[in-house]
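Assemble and predict.
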Amino acid sequence: MSIEAIAFIGGTGRQGLGLALRFAAAGAPVVIGSRVAERAVAAAETVRTAVPGASVRGSENAEAVARSKRLVLTFPFGGLASFLATGRAALAGKLVIDVIVPLAVRNGFFELAPVDGAASAGELIQQTVPAARVVSAFKNHSAETLQDIAAPLEGDVLLCGNDAGARAEVAALVGLLPGLRAVDAGGIANARYLEAITALLLNLNRRHKARASIAILGLPKP
Amino acid sequence: MSIEAIAFIGGTGRQGLGLALRFAAAGAPVVIGSRVAERAVAAAETVRTAVPGASVRGSENAEAVARSKRLVLTFPFGGLASFLATGRAALAGKLVIDVIVPLAVRNGFFELAPVDGAASAGELIQQTVPAARVVSAFKNHSAETLQDIAAPLEGDVLLCGNDAGARAEVAALVGLLPGLRAVDAGGIANARYLEAITALLLNLNRRHKARASIAILGLPKP
């Protein structure tokens, strides 16, 4: 595994910051991207404080995209259309890890919001940027747990994408994080199910006052 | 727990027969329903052979519905509309356990088929028969494993429905089956996510040559 930096686009949010913290703690160089450079720099400082010796820097999203070959999209679904409209050319050929889930809350019930033109955020990204190597992953772990860096992680990271090599790269990244197992879920069309699980877990979390994750039982040993 | 019989409507199919076998093996009286009485009787004989001493009988679906207070709907989604059109009045007031998943296969990919007028089979049933106590459950266990009665079961049975008492009844039924844990997933609107998990598991099974099930991690002990 190279130690090329992993750039978290929209990495000042809870999910992005949580993942950046975990990867920094695992020794991976990370870049925090934000629409506002000052916020990116502040978040990088947060990571550096939590993980002494971390290799981390903050930069404006567009610069982080331009300079990184491994991107993790961690901003809210509401920002996806404009991100793709302005940034799609810069994604071509890159590993694009999609952590986005189109969520809405109605009367306390978490539900998937419809995605215009696709069955999931992951599929929308891949359709919009055919030359990107999109892998949906990390959709089913609580942002709170990720940020709570003393809390052990557990469960499976389901990942899907149309490029088997890209899936293997993401599986190797998952392997950097103690407690997590990567599960290859095949093509990007499965992203809709990963996103459905997010909504279910949020409803379970609310009902059971938990930070649930999932495990797939019955798979053969790798 | 009373030992009132559990009637499996469409119980000659793989999922229904598998569940009937497991409940019969757990000592519960079961009824196998089929559109064709002779097939129901033959399936009951199959259960009796696999589970010596089982309390099991076969009957035509309509009779099984009329005579039972606990029904498990285990026929394919394609039969749901006509079942509800003719049988809805007989479901009022009853515990209706919905195991149906609207599935389609396209180019080897399992996907959810759209449900006319609802976001899931479970929601369609509850909407169509407001007086039934509908609980979606058992959607995420392989029919093959259920039928393979020597194989241990494992994983969680997510269940959802709008009637908390009905959910508790189903949780108690799950408790009869060694190796399984019931997880209360709240209202019936979550049925769409249980059904999504079925499609995901079928895709995982195909890819990994497995009979996968799921577990929810991080829930508080009951």
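Residues 91 and 132 of chain B are 6 Å apart (CA to CA).
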